[in-house]
Structure prediction request, 325 residues.
Amino acid sequence: MAYHRHSRAEGAAPRDHYAEITAQVIDALEAGTLPWRRPWDQAKADGAPMSPRNAITGRRYRGINLLMLGMTGLVFAGSDPRWLTYKQAVAKGWQVRRGERGSRVFFFRKLLVADSRPGEDADGDGEGGMRAVPVLRAYTAFHASQVEGVPTLETLPSPEVVWRTPEAAEVILDGSGAVLREGGDRAFYSPSTDHIQMPPRPAFESPEAYAATLLHELGHWSGAPSRLARDLTGRFGSHAYSQEELRAELASCFIAGELGLPCDIPNHASYVASWLRVLKDDKREIFRAAADAQRISDYLLAYHPEHAKRIADERIETVGGGGEG
Prediction:
């Protein structure tokens, strides 16, 4: 066989996926790299599919999986977004090439266990009831380029990418009803007045740069109490502020990937330092941040009619698809 799974030795402690992934992100940040940012390629933005998805089920990878697969570099190496597990490859008669290393993807399952906590019960049936415990399961996924026998990816027809222009960000803005004011030299969202402030358009290097910054601020806008209701009360440098900035940063990159826009908004060194503190304090924070970023991305992209229609069509096509991925 070209690929061997390595099972955990009997009696060995289970792997701490939260700690391992957090350490990987921290190492990248300390090395001066924002691991979730993809290099922008105009050629790909104009037509190539960009969101990683499972080669068998067609389902998109989301949240922490979108972040993890993006960190591999394989997502950006070509125009093929497909990934699959070893088991899925074997079922199709395909073969993972010898020596190829897979990438981890994660799935949460809720496991019902007896609730032995005195006086507490998640189901409200009294002591001794059942409660749901989230369990993180890891799989190994391979990019299509690592697998022999995978059919060539069909080229997307042009109607599939009609939203991939800088104007797409403004379509989302218009659909959202967010209040935008232009002027000054800073971009920010003000929770007290519920408006987005942007510098004049000529202050940006390109329409794409303007759109990327606007998406970042729309990410913050989504957190208002009447929308996704996140904590927007933190002052600069606070723990809550750092958490919110990390979510908006990830969300803007998720959205930019869908729209074919750059996500290289300059970040002051203090932002990266604050993210490091947040991640070092809590090994689960990057998972929560990625989940919140996915919610932000879904919320904002729903304001783009063409994109929303495509997502709805994809869900219809993948209903009933099962298995890993």
Notes: The beta strands are 53-54, 82-85, 95-96, 103-114, 130-143, 147-148, 179-182, 188-190, 195-198. Confidence is low (pLDDT under 50) at residues 1-8, 120-127, 156-160, 318-324.
